[in-house]
């Protein structure tokens, strides 16, 4: 068993230098994934870098351009913010599904993304909202869309000496809303068998003018499904459009079979969830009239 070192940098540059100087570093934000994995022997880092003392990672900013969330902002801080919930209800609901009340006080949307689980609840919701990742490394800042961040189960696009700094959500247009639904075997605190998120915009006549649809837990990473969004745009979410949304979501899925559900079952369920999430998002957008 290797020795474990701990560091708590106070700047992005210091954090990047620490990460780049170790053969096996891990970032600690809330620790709700990392500490469990270490206890189970799934992770044995040589260095744990606690990022909570870096100011940028704890900042929350909501303005005319949208929402900026530091990567270490706790889930409970986000879900308790009524202004954020009013603009991004689906994302806030998805984030609130992670773990227990105690976990909510420590977990973060940034950590949920960086853990790179295909079944992470907040990730499809972030994708549907069009969120971007701001990443810092030795060469400065770069930005990638959330749908491009994770590259496989437990894997993402971060280099060894890079750190996720924040997540940026564009401010929704008028008559816009989002929604997230998941299916789990139990009533709460379980891992999604399938999940779907929809964000859309309606015009004054109730016609969908823009949409984003994302699915989770049914592929190696959460997926943006352009074909499902195309089925919504130009419609009033009639039965034909909703059936096309479900079909596109199911077709995009590439699930596995395990003890919680077969691939065929997951493929079917994710289509049903996408259809229902679209209707919820539509109802919320209409309520803005």
TrEMBL record:
- Show where the FAD-binding PCMH-type domain sits: 1-174
- What positions belong to coiled-coil segments? none
Q: Which InterPro entries match?
A: CO_DH_flav_C, CO_DH_flav_C_dom_sf, Diverse_Substr_Oxidored, FAD-bd_PCMH, FAD-bd_PCMH-like_sf, FAD-bd_PCMH_sub1, FAD-bd_PCMH_sub2, Mopterin_DH_FAD-bd
Which GO molecular function, any one, fits this protein according to its record?
oxidoreductase activity
UniProtKB keywords: FAD, Flavoprotein, Oxidoreductase
Question: Which superkingdom does the taxonomy of this entry point to?
Answer: Bacteria
Quote the Gene3D superfamilies the UniProt record gives. Answer: 3.30.465.10, CO dehydrogenase flavoprotein, C-terminal domain (3.30.390.50), Uridine Diphospho-n-acetylenolpyruvylglucosamine Reductase, domain 2 (3.30.43.10)
Signal peptide region: none
PROSITE patterns assigned to the protein according to its UniProt record, in alphabetical order: FAD_PCMH
UniProt-listed PANTHER family = XANTHINE DEHYDROGENASE SUBUNIT C-RELATED
Q: What is this protein called?
A: Xanthine dehydrogenase family protein subunit M
Question: In which organism is this protein found?
Answer: Mangrovimicrobium sediminis
Question: In the record, what lineage is assigned to the organism producing the protein?
Answer: Bacteria, Pseudomonadati, Pseudomonadota, Gammaproteobacteria, Cellvibrionales
């Amino acid at each position: 068993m290797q020795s474990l070192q701990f560091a708590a940098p106070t700047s992005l540059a210091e954090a990047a230098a620490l990460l780049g100087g170790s053969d096996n570093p891990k970032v600690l934000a809330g620790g709700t994934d990392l500490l469990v994995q270490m206890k189970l022997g799934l992770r044995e880092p040589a260095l744990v870098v606690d990022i909570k003392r870096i100011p940028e990672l704890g900042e929350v900013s909501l303005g005319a351009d949208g929402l900026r969330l530091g990567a270490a902002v706790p889930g409970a801080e986000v879900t308790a913010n009524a202004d954020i919930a009013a603009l991004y209800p689906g994302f806030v609901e998805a984030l609130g599904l992670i773990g227990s009340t105690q976990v909510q006080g420590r977990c973060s949307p940034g950590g949920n993304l960086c853990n790179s689980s295909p079944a992470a609840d907040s990730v499809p919701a972030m994708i549907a909202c069009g969120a971007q990742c701001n990443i810092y490394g030795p060469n400065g800042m770069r930005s990638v869309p959330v749908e491009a961040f994770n590259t496989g189960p437990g894997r993402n696009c971060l280099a060894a000496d890079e750190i996720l700094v924040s997540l940026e959500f564009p401010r929704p247009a008028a008559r816009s809303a989002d929604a997230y639904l998941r299916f789990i075997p139990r009533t709460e605190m379980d891992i999604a068998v399938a999940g779907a998120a929809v964000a859309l915009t309606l015009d004054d006549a109730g016609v969908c003018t823009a949409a984003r649809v994302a699915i989770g837990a049914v592929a190696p990473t959460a997926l943006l499904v352009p074909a499902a969004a195309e089925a919504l745009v130009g419609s009033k979410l009639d039965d034909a459009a909703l059936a096309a949304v479900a079909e596109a979501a199911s077709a995009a899925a590439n699930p596995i079979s395990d003890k919680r559900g077969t691939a065929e079952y997951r493929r079917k369920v994710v289509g049903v969830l996408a259809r229902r999430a679209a209707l919820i998002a539509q109802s919320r957008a209409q309520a803005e009239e």
